[in-house]
Amino acid sequence: MSAGFFSRGFRGRRRQTDDRLPPGQYLVDGFPVLSAGPTPRTPLETWDFSIVGEVDEPKRWTWEELRALPSEEVTRDIHCVTKWSKLGTRWEGVSVDTLLEGVETAAEYVTAFCDGGYTTNLPLEDVTGGRAWIAFSFDGAPLEPEHGGPARLLVPHLYFWKSAKWVRGLRLLTRDEPGFWESLGYHNYGDPWREQRYWGD
Amino acid sequence: MAEIRRLTGRLAWRIGEVVETRPAAPRTRSLYLEVPGWEGHKAGQHVDVRLTAEDGYQAQRSYSIASAPEEGRIELVVEHLDDGEVSPYLTDELRTEDKLELRGPIGGWFAWEAREGGPLFLVAGGSGIAPLMAMIRHRAAAGSDAACRLLYSSRSREDTIFAGELDRLTASDGSLEVVYTLTRSQPSGWTGYARRIDDEMLAEVAPTPEQRPLVFVCGPTPLVESVATSLVGLGHDAGRIKTERFGLTGG
Questions:
Q1: Options 2.60.40.1180, 3.30.360.10, 2.40.30.10, 3.30.200.20; which CATH number does B2-106 get?
Q2: CATH fold of B114-245, please?
């Protein structure tokens, strides 16, 4: 309905044509914070990470056990559905592949669950094959609580609400179950390059 | 409505007409839009606005809706950001009879409907008042008697968006209370709060945890982080505190 429409007097000042910028996004230098409620603060002594659901045997790591696993440094662009993108962000974390090593499952989906009750759903293949991490460090420093610390899921190829803050585990599922924002009108998959912001996009 | 959208598919871009613009504070304008085919919204929801230059270049941003669902037109409150690309156009260039492309409403979490009842505790910082104003207006339009208290932090009285309307509403409604804090400058004779919101202020102003208020906090990130953390520390149920950030993403 909007073909041929333009905004009288709008020329656009930033003209960001960087080909790393998905449609409808703009660049920021800062790191905006978005969350739906108070920032949870779980002491590391009681923190754990688990893999549950459709698995022959659930797995669990304490904070120290998780940090003892091999970790990777990754540098990726991130894209928030609220339109900002940040290029070349530096993270350190444990690959989800490492956590799923030796796990037998018929699952095709995962739901990440978090302190504070937040959930988000993803196809299993989007968190495996070197595409997702449990990140505990940002830009060389421990991940701040307001950015999801002590650890968040990092799935940089999808809109950033999929990179669940304060993540405490993955539930493997044979059927897809919409998570928190996915139940509230946001796209089930969330590919920024296809601008999948909302239901029906 | 969400269900209807799921069945009909895409959240479509619509072209609204600017029917009025009005200064809301020194660097902030209210835009009033009529949007043909608008399906209505819940108080607290937002829209995406998309600007298109003649050569096809586009920029998008999100803005909260400040008007009640009961009003025929949509009010957006836009603060001019110096390094912004979209907000200076909306505050300085856009005028009555211009067209504006938008889609929505978006976001069903930071939202309140009168039938959910109260008590409500609303905390606003600056232009973060917008979605909370929609709730206050909706509460009034729906004839709700749910107890509602707003704690509203702004730099000065002139920066206090909707002050006149809030004062009128509280004068005629015994279950609505508004508490202001003016952080930078205060009119002579000011006896209210004159500092940033802190633990002590929240302990004085917020309903008690036993009253189980529904809490909505909207403003810049430092305010939202500190208010939400303080309220949890005061014993409020984290699951009843909803937050929304405003204005810091360079729009």
A1: 2.40.30.10
A2: Rossmann fold (3.40.50)
pLDDT, residue B83, reads 85
Assess contact for B56 and B45: CB atoms under 8 A: no
What local confidence, expressed as pLDDT, does residue B250 receive? 40
What is the pTM assigned to this prediction? 0.93
With contact defined as beta carbons under 8 Å apart, do A117 and A68 qualify? no
Peptide bond into B119 cis (omega under 30): yes
C-alpha B63/C-alpha B107 separation (Å) is: 11
Output the CA torsion sign for B161, B162, B167, B170. Answer: negative
Mean pLDDT by 10 residues, chain B (251 residues): 50 95 96 94 96 93 95 95 92 97 93 97 96 98 97 97 97 97 97 98 98 97 95 97 71 44
Q: Where are the domains of chain B?
A: 2-106, 114-245
Write out pLDDT tens, residues A178-191.
Answer: 999 999 999 999 99
B92 and A CB contact within 8 Å: no
What ipTM was reported for this prediction? 0.91
* Cβ–Cβ contact A117 with B under 8 A: yes
CATH for A154 = 3.90.420.10
Q: What part of A 23-42 touches B (C-beta under 8 Å)?
A: 24, 26, 28, 30, 32-40
> What is the pLDDT at residue B7?
46
Contact by Cβ (8 Å): B122, B151: yes
Same fold, B2-106 and B114-245: no
Interchain pair A2, B15: CB under 8 A: yes
